[in-house]
Amino acid sequence: MKHLQQLDYIVFLIYFVIVAGYGYWIYNRKKSAMASSKDFFLAEGSLTWWAIGASLIASNISAEHFIGMSGSGFALGLAISTYEWMSAATLIIVAVFFIPVYLKNRIYTMPQFLLQRYNSTVSTIMAVFWLLVYVFVNLTSIIYLGALAISAISGIDFYWCIFGLALFAVVVTLGGMKVIGYTDVIQVIVLIVGGLATTYLALHMVSRHFGYGDDIFKGLSLIKEKADTHFHMIFPSTHPYYKDLPGLSVLIGGMWVNNLNYWGCNQYIIQRTLGADLKTARSGILFAAFLKLLIPVIAVLPGIAAYVLYQNGVFGPELHDAAGALKPDQAYPTLLNLLPAGLKGLAFAALTAAVVASLAGKANSISTIFSLDIYHKFFKKDATEKELVKVGRYVVVVAMLIAAVVAPALRTLDQAYQFIQEYVGFIAPGVLAIFLLGLYWKRTTTRAAMAGALLTIPLSAVLKFLPVWTGGAFPDFPFLDRMSIVFGLLVVIMLVLTYTEEKSKYQQPVIIVDRKMYKASPAFVVGSVIIMGILTALYTVFW
Fold it and tell me: So what's the pLDDT on residue 64?
């Protein structure tokens, strides 16, 4: 197998030195403020709109996109892009209806919102849920997929890759949100340029294979022609991958539950905006929404191109495991191995940038929730700002260590991206129900919120495993539909519990909501209309 050459290592070293050097410069420049927990965790007032937007994307885009989405692109086609394109629409909604409430009430963590809106019990339960999901699903899968890809293209041992990624991410994370936010700008530039290089190679290979020379636009038309079934966004119920993307649910069903939870109620994402003013936060989110439209070009198209080449005999052993089983997640690493020296180093840097940025962002959120919502509340209420920052740094190291130890257990997976979406979806319906009713219905009671928090995982598990337990007598719903069903059930349960509780026990929310704060600037409205117009065109063309 072709591995990295000297020029590739030079390119990667340049990337590493730039990121590390810039991060160190930012750290020293802001060193005097680092004792503040809000500054360390949120970079309060320091991130510009472009840094916020870039950091949102850098934290969101990781190995599960390059590797996982390319694998899903290979297996089921462009339809997997709905996670990206629907996210662009979701970001607009979050910017208008969620962010103003958080900023107006000076919310620093999602558990803090639940504490102010409901009570300490609801806040603590959800904080524990988030910590478990972040560490054992998100952080673990990011480091696993990153190590898998880097090992495949560099020849470095899989376990050494895990160690290297974890160490690099820890170094970046220990500098706080300022270092993460500004180094993410470099990470995004590198991952987009490197990602486009891989897309170029894939389309170039398709064009040359069919005798059309170096015309990449011909390569694009060829993959559309040779894999027409891979260019439909909405699957009929007879489609073999209908369970992954169940028809209109990607437009009007569970995808909204998934995305609104991820972008609107997720510490990992929201944290980038909580230290900014409303105009800066909204501008950053809109910038991120535009970037989300581009992600399928660098993450999905290479997988479809690899599928076309595989169908025409180009790839064989490279896409199969030792037992001979087809592994779609090997599509992207296989393409990377074909890049020329230099470009391969750039793609290698892009992949590393995506992984490290996501690991750093996730680890920072884990340390934020633990330090502010667990340690400060239960272990040391009089902890100083310096002590909270110190604890946060310890938590970063411990969380990364746990993820590195657990990561190899994911090697049995076929499409890791779908695994992540499904199991994060166990908690998403409850989180979204609690937040939406808490934000927009003053009468929602603490008892109702408690029910939503405690029932989301059991209800999701019952709907997933009941078909197996009953031998197929109970319908086996696609996981996006399960999310819709569980969300609907939880909302009904919460409504009933609220209405059956005595009015004297209604929780008066300590949350300020002013309709004026939902008003958006003309520039934001224009940008939003452009994004929605592009999305309408994409779904119309590729329906």
Answer: 66
Burial call 171-181: b when 16+ CB within 10 Å, e when fewer: bbbbbbbbbbb
How far apart, in whole angstroms, are the C-alpha atoms of residue 81 and residue 4?
A: 30
Q: What pLDDT does 177 receive?
A: 63
Residue 422 has pLDDT above 90, yes or no: no
Instruction: Say if residues 213 and 197 touch (Cβ distance below 8 Å).
Output: no
Question: What is the pLDDT at residue 41?
Answer: 60
- 3-state secondary structure (DSSP) of residue 22: helix
Longest dimension (CA), the chain: 77
Q: What is the mean pLDDT of the chain?
A: 81
Contact status, residue 418 vs residue 145, Cβ threshold 8 Å: no
Amino acid at 399: A
User: In the 8-state DSSP scheme, what is residue 520?
Assistant: P
Split at pLDDT 50, 70, 90, the class of 488 is very high
- The amino acid present at 529, given as its one-letter code, is V
Of 182, 531, 226, 279, the C-alpha closest to 539 is 531
Q: How confident is the model at residue 1 (pLDDT cuts 50, 70, 90)?
A: very low
Instruction: Considering only residues 396 and 508, tell me which one the structure prediction assigns the higher pLDDT.
Output: 396
Alpha-helical (H) ranges within 174-210 are: 177-209
Q: Is 123 exposed, middle or buried (0-12, 13-18, 19+ CB in 10 A)?
A: buried
Q: Would you mind telling me the total number of residues written for the chain in this entry? A: 543
CA 227 to chain centre: 28
What one-character-per-residue DSSP string does 214-259 give? T-HHHHHHHHHHHTGGGS-SS--TTSTTTTTS-TTHHHHSHHHHHH
Q: What is the distance between the alpha carbons of residues 73 and 66, in angstroms, rounded to a whole number?
A: 10
Q: Please choose, from the candidates 347, 396, 332, 406, the residue with its C-alpha nearest in 3D space to the C-alpha of residue 368.
A: 396
Which single residue is written with the structure tokens 């169908």?
Answer: 311
Tokens of 156: 């470095």
Kindly calculate the radius of gyration of the chain based on its CA atoms and give it in whole angstroms: 23
Kindly tell me if the per-residue pLDDT of 414 is higher than 60.
Answer: no
Question: Is residue 503 pLDDT above 80, yes or no?
Answer: no
